[in-house]
Amino acid sequence: MNLEEIHTHYEENREEIENRLEEFRELRESNDYRLFMELYFVILTSQSSAKNAWKAVQQLDDLNLLIEGDKSEIAEILRKNEIQYEKNKAQYLIDNRKLLSQPTLKNPTNELKIKEKLNLNNLEKTRKWLVENIKGLSWKGASHFLRNIGYGDDFAIVSSYVSKTLFKLELIEEAELPKNKEKYLEQEKIVRELAEEVGISIQALDLALWSMETGEVFK
To answer: Are residues 141 and 204 in the same domain?
Structure first.
């Protein structure tokens, strides 16, 4: 793999990639419940198939379990969709649901209020808050979530296939996921520079690399 191959792949799939990014940007206008679906999807993708994760979220939505489900009900849906660590991730849903619906003067009815928790005028601060407060969300996950709701244009989603790509391009010494914040930000800087060299946005680069790995543009 080289820069020319990445750029060529992007150009061949430009319309699909840019349409998908536009779909993400449209989620900026979504309600808090829809954003919660996206948040939980990202949490479920850790060590599990993205397609299975989205299917699980849709089933939980259909059964109204995202809002009212207990741990065993949620875990059973996750298990059926082959989500790893289903019991832990079921608990993450309950804990995050509680955090994001805590009663306040502005929100006395226990409704989900994700937008009130996010400072979308300071995305660095928002990403840090997500990592520190949302159960099951890493630096990669926080970046992924913000991308999927139309923000974080300067953030990289440093997943295993991205680290492998950086290694193949001899930009890092080992094809390993970053183990802490410092390592994550180091690889993110490299991805940002790579995107500039290829001549596309960092978000388009992520989708291009993903489709090179899997053969499709997803989320």
So the answer is: yes
